[in-house]
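Bumping with the actual sequence this time:
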Amino acid sequence: MKKLEAVIFDFDGTIVDTEKVYYENMRDLTEEVLGTKLDKMDYIENVSGTNEETSRRYYNKRFGMSDEDYDKFEEEITRRIFENYHSAPVLPGIAEVMEYLHEIGVKMAVASNGKEEHIRTGLKRKGFEKYIGAIATREEVENPKPASDVYLLAANKLGVSIENSIAIEDSKPGAIGASKSGATLILQTNDITKHMDFSGVQYAYKDVDLLETIKRCSRKINNIEEFF
């Protein structure tokens, strides 16, 4: 990379700590509806960072839940998560990084397996909407993460080269998608995704001081040095 054109963020678990919200609500409702405990590590390995379709298959396979019963389960879990979704805290370094990138003129986007409505609301409530130039979601692409489609779409919407972009991700599915896209990956895990096995995932940095890392990269760019 010789020119930093953009930084593309995942949303859930990267900008805001919603992965914990998802897990805790899924855990509680699973016990209420099925009378059994949701294994945390099994959930993290198979569901965290994916999408509703993957969650449905997981509950079909693990608990023998029918599609009809899962529809009711999904309706209730959506209601519960929505009640707590936007109270989830911003993850460390995110606000400072966005302000810094805005100051130096680097474009920003969100690439997510989530729903655009929730992302836009979340960005607005956190005061980040002024920084984000584009949002790409699974609703707009053929293949969600771990495919690279949403990252490529985000770069296209910004009018930048994905090879001149940094991607920031927290989960294995997202990290795989970001890496496949050609972006330079910074992997920032949280209390849920830190338990994931990231072997085989190509990333430049993992669990770093995000602001200082971005600053260091941008300074090297200004000196016309190749840093990755």
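The tokens above came from a reply further down the thread. The chain has a mean pLDDT of 93.
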